[in-house]
Amino acid sequence: MKRLLIGAVFALAACQGVAADSAVVSLTEGRIEVSNSTLAAGKATLEVVNDGEFNHTLVVATATGRVVAATEVITSGESIDLDLDLTPGEYEFTCRIVVQTADGVTVDHYAQGMVSHVTVTGDSGS
Ligand SMILES: [Cu+2]
């Protein structure tokens, strides 16, 4: 029964031509975890969750640094859906918050390891 239901859902998605991909992106201090490191080209929705203690962002950029999407600042425990329309290629998911502590130390989330690489496969659709 369960298998039948899953088949029906796929058939429905195919009929509507909305094979939108999705992934969950978890932001924590010094780390960005993406549920799947490969996405299909076209429309995709990321559920971006701040599982950390401090504020974070998600910036999606191409391998050459062109920003294609970004969230607002996401506070601890909050999540934001980020809609994308991706062409094939390599992408960097990063947090770009840079702050300075009271004693003058610069804290750069990217430098602390908040970067993850995602590959987008398939036709560009153009
Ligand atoms: Cu961050």
Briefly characterize the structure.
This protein has 126 residues and is mainly beta.
How would you describe the overall organization of this protein?
By secondary structure, the protein is mainly β. Helix content is 12%, strand content 47%. It has one helix spanning 2-16, and strands at residues 21-28, 31-34, 38-40, 42-50, 59-62, 67-70, 79-86, 89-94, 98-100, 106-108, 115-121. Strands 3-11-8-5-6 form a five-stranded mixed β-sheet, with no helix packed on it. Strands 2-1-4-7 form a four-stranded mixed β-sheet, with no helix packed on it. It is globular. 19% of the residues are buried. The model is unreliable at 11-17 (pLDDT under 50). Bound molecules: copper (II) ion (CU). Copper (II) ion (CU) is lined by residues 56, 95, 97, 109, 114.
Tell me the Rg in angstroms: 17 Å
CATH topology: Immunoglobulin-like
Q: What hetero molecules are bound to the protein chains?
A: copper (II) ion
Number of domains: 1
Instruction: Give the number of helices.
Output: 1
- Determine and state the CATH class: Mainly Beta
CATH architecture: Sandwich
Beta strands, count: 11
Subunit organisation of the chains: single chain
Note the main sheet: 5 strands, mixed
**How much helical structure, as a percent, in the residues?**
10-25%
Helix and strand content put the structural class at mainly beta
